[in-house]
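Morning. Coffee machine broken again, so started the prediction first thing and wrote up yesterday's gels while waiting. Chain of 243 residues, entered below exactly as on the submission form.
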Amino acid sequence: MRLSRPAQVAEAIKTFIVKEGLQPGDRLPSEPELIERFGMAKGTIREALRLLDAQGLVKSRTGPGGGTFVHEPSPERAEALLANYFYFKDLTISDIYQIRRVLEPELVADLAGNLNPCVLGELRTILASYSEPATTDDEERDQHIATLRFHKLLADQSANPLLSFLIGFMLSILTDITVYRKLYTPINHDLWSRGVDYQTRLLDALDQGDGKAARAIMKAHMQTAGPLMEGQEAYSLKRFLTD
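Came back before lunch.
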């Protein structure tokens, strides 16, 4: 597919940023300089910059010291843009857990023995927040969200930014699906008890630096949680069809 002129210029500006080694906060050339460099009309340059701004790659400021500056998109912005792509894909719990079963065991194997004590403490605090089974739908929803926050904190510790982002993105999508499809109802004590057991043993393995055990525990955790969550999803769909 042939790109429009503004899109072509936007790509050229991105190439320029990389070649020049520009970093977030660095100023781009002025509008007249960009017009001369790329041989395009003012309107084309401005539209190209608007495209880059929409992608979160540049930011413009007016007034003294203003101009257009290189900007680093936040993980939240990147997740939101990517989520738009999947909005109409009708992702299922099976789709998500297929990827979780592959990535998260390797994540924790790498993290074993390398976690800051403060992070381990924070993980134990999250785990303690659902040490007792929920008694209401609201409690069950909050516990589901907290368990995913436990996994997100682990993902945030990865030295691999791509692995961290991919897992974090999946957990964000799973959180949204759990809430708007009400996958936290009915209350599932089996899912809760198994999850607490796996996460407790996982923290011990991480603290002891046992990567092999951490990988095995997380793999079993994902293999168990997947079908149980698929059962919640099936119940939710049946409830929707009968309402």
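The CA atoms of residues 109 and 211 lie 4 Å apart. Going to sketch it on the whiteboard this afternoon.
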